[in-house]
Amino acid sequence: MITRQLGRTGPVSSALGLGCMGMSDLYGPADREAAQATFAVAREAGITLLDTGDFYGMGHNELLVGEALRQVPRDQAIVSVKFGAQRGPDGAWLGFDARPVAVKTALAYSLKRLGTDYVDIYRPARLDPNVPIEDTVGAIAEMVQAGYVRHIGLSEVGSETLRRAAAVHPISDLQIEYSLISRGIEDGVLQTCRELGIGITAYGVLSRGLISGHWSGGKDAATDFRLHSPRFQGQALEHNLGLVEKLKAFAAARGATPAQLAIAWVAAQGQDIVPLIGARRPDRLTEALGALDLTLTPADLAELETIVPKGAAAGERYNPEQMAMLDSERR
C-alpha cells in the first residue's frame, strides 16, 4: 500500500482511507456481515485509516470499527473519530455540542465503544457556532497531553477557523468534501491548509455514489439521506448523470471504471490528500483500490477539466439548512 503523511504533524496513512459511515447509517439499512467483509478487504489491502463518528448509527459504527480493530495490532490502524452532532432516539438531528466538557465526555464513550485506549485523530464534525474553536481544540489538546488522543483534526471549516485552531495546537488534517463535482475547497481552504501544513482527508470523492457509475436511485427516503439532497433530485439528478456518462467514456478508454477515475483524480490533486472511500461492500472497496493503479497524466487531467469543469454539477451538496452550517462555505 502506498502511504501519505497527513500534514506536517499527522500520522503516515495508507493512500486511501475507509469511510465507515454508510455501514451503519444514512445510506440505507446496516449489514454487519457485509461491513466485516469490507473491513477484511481493507486489512488485506493495507488500508490503515478508518474514519468513523460517534453519531453514525448512534454508536453502532464505533462498535463495528471496534470489532475490526481487534483483528489487527492496534498500532497498525489509524482511527479517526468525529464528534459533536447530537441525535435523538429516533435518529433526529438535534444540534451540535463542542463545549470542552462535551468533548471529554464524548471521547470517553468513544474509547469504550471502540475498545481502545486512544484515538489517533479526534475532530469536531462541524464548527459549533456557540463555542470558540480555541476552546474546543484546547480541550482536545488536554486529551492529547493525557494520552487519550494522538492528533487533532477538523472537519468542514474555513480558513479563518483553521488559522485560529492551528494557533492553539497543530492540526493534522482537515476532513472536507472534495471530488470532481465538489471543488469549493479550491477557493481558499486548500491553499490555507497547505500554508499551515495541514493535510486533507477527502470525503465524498464519489459524491455519495453519484459519480461512481453505480447510482440506480435510492429506495427509501427514510433511511437514505441522499434522496433529500439537491444533487439527487429532479432535473439536477438528470443533469449530473449526464456528466457521469461522459466520465464513463473517459474511464473506459483508460481501462478503468468511473469510480476509479474519480478517486484517482482526487488523489492526483496533491500528495497531502488522502481520499476516503465510503464502501459498504467488499466488491465496492475492491473496485476502489484499482484507483491506485490508475495514473492520470497532465493531459488526462486537462481533458477532464474540459469534460467536467469546476462548477459543472447541478444542485448543492447538502440541503440549504445543512449548507448554512458549513463554516467551510464561508471560506
Automatic annotation (TrEMBL):
Residues 16-307 form the NADP-dependent oxidoreductase domain. The lineage of its organism: Bacteria, Pseudomonadati, Pseudomonadota, Alphaproteobacteria, Caulobacterales. Signal peptide: none annotated. This is Aryl-alcohol dehydrogenase-like predicted oxidoreductase. It comes from the Bacteria. Pfam families: Aldo_ket_red. InterPro entries: Aldo-Keto_reductase, NAD(P)_OxRdtase_dom_sf, NADP_OxRdtase_dom. Keywords: Oxidoreductase. SUPFAM superfamilies: NAD(P)-linked oxidoreductase. It comes from Phenylobacterium koreense.
